[in-house]
Protein: 4-diphosphocytidyl-2-C-methyl-D-erythritol kinase
Amino acid sequence: MRSYTLTAPAKINLYLEIIGDRPDGYHELAMILQSIDLADRIELHSIGNDSIRVRCDRPEVPTDERNLAYQAAELMATQFPEAFSKYGGVEITINKHIPVAAGLAGGSTNAAAVLVGIDLLWNLGLTQSELEELGANLGSDVPFCVAGGTVIATGRGEQLSPLPNLDNIYIVLAKYRSLEVSTAWAYKTYRQQFSDSYVRDTANLAARAAAVHSGGIVKAIFEKNTAEIAQKLHNDLERVVLPAYPQVLQLREVFATQESVLGTMMSGSGPTVFALIESEQQAQAVKLKVRETIPDEDLELFVTRMTTHGIQIVSSGK
Ligand code: ATP
Structure:
């Protein structure tokens, strides 16, 4: 039976702007997404029957049809029924390193890995854009997770334009294990509080998204000016999450007082907060300092760095 092992990196949002409402009920967004070195490991095995099985080393992650990796395999089975009956079912084993429900796209990157892995297992020969299109059916962050890197994402987050790769920037991530922020709650609350300022005219929606393409942070990314990128971080969802979750606000403030932190921001709908830092040594020192300032065992801290890729194949077997 054939098998593939893949790595599935997390993402952070360097920029997240909510532009307006879309007719499909989602928000029109302009984001800059960045892959980071913190990754889950996904193993895919062909099994000689027609079932999809998911195993995960984290008990809080569902392994049934609620799991995005499961949904990705199901999507492939319905899209490619001949290959499914030829090659049989799939067993998916997820080794989690990315914190769950953290605003780091953990589930989305697992789903992207399953799309890439099944494409290989079933010899489908799909292109990157075909994989991204399939991913859009599973969630707005899934298309980005396929190839990763540094990307402008507009629409619901599924329309991608690559930016020059950033990689030599270090990151400290901070998240309280027991704290979860519902993404649906964050967007709904934002709509309740701030929809007055939404761009209503659809032509202007596109113009606003286009403005992000030429805006300050994009220029800083083209210039690879880390200090400037860090100054231009932005996330509209902080406006609703920080007032409601004082622990997230506290992490923001503790990071902001560290000398070597160039900039700090919440990722996605939180509750993970990240800090951008020039060197690994400084990042380790910041991690220690935050640990000293908040000696709470519920607080998880990770040192990682930006990376230029999405899903990667580690090994394959017969
Ligand atoms: P995003 O940044 O895309 O909003 P997230 O990082 O906030 O995602 P996930 O880690 O994907 O959040 O988890 C959100 C919820 O999805 C969890 O409550 C979890 O139960 C469920 N889930 C489904 N599939 C997975 C998966 N493969 N890995 C982790 N969580 C999953």
The chain has a mean pLDDT of 94. Residues 106-121 form the longest helix (16 residues). The pocket of adenosine-5'-triphosphate is lined by residues 61-62, 66-69, 94, 100-108, 110, 141, 183, 268-269 (CB under 6 Å). The domain at 3-165+308-317 is CATH 3.30.230.10 (Ribosomal Protein S5; domain 2).
